[in-house]
Fold:
Amino acid sequence: MAVTIEELDAAAVASRLDELAQLLLDAHASGMALGLQAPLSRDGARAAYADAAAGLAAGERVLLVARDGDELVGAVQIDRSETGNGRHRGELRRLVVRTDRRGAGVGSALMTAAVEHARGMELRLLWLSTHEGTHADRFYEQLGWTRVGVIPDWAVLPNGDLAGNAFYFLRLANID
Ligand SMILES: CC(C)(COP(=O)(O)OP(=O)(O)OC[C@H]1O[C@@H](n2cnc3c(N)ncnc32)[C@H](O)[C@@H]1OP(=O)(O)O)[C@@H](O)C(=O)NCCC(=O)NCCS
Structure:
């Protein structure tokens, strides 16, 4: 696999909005909402990453992409909690691999790099949620994350159905 993982700054996000948007459109086509309401337009998907770019400058968020040559084939972001007593905690969000590159280790490589970056941000706990019963719901357990359980009716799927979300965590350090 010739894929490399790299961090994007706000300027790089702005210059690659179309490719990033395509990842979100691919996710919706797979039935995964990634926090976004359907129907998701290209402009809506571009806006989601344009908004995300703001937190990058402030150091509150890291956006990692998987690159094959000059093509973006996947992405993931880590958001530090804004809660006063939760600054050691981060949410892993919007993991997505381009449809034609799934099943080749790109998602796993993004997750490994995200954990490494989270340590660099001095985070001690990561958490995430994903739609119950999906491929992603099995994927995180395979990577060693702990599945806490499911909150029913958490999100509206791209097809309009309500879905439960499974919640996961990964401890990066023991909390004193
Ligand atoms: C979930 C996702 C990010 C995984 O990325 P990926 O690059 O396909 O994952 P990997 O290739 O690293 O695969 C990891 C494991 O999942 C398996 N896998 C990957 N794609 C699969 C598929 N479509 N069906 C079944 N198993 C699959 C791999 O075989 C591998 O298992 P193994 O280590 O036992 O061989 C990707 O499928 C995706 O973008 N899905 C749509 C968006 C989404 O669900 N995001 C998560 C939101 S929380």
Notes: Residues 4 and 125 are 25 Å apart (CA to CA). The chain has a mean pLDDT of 96.
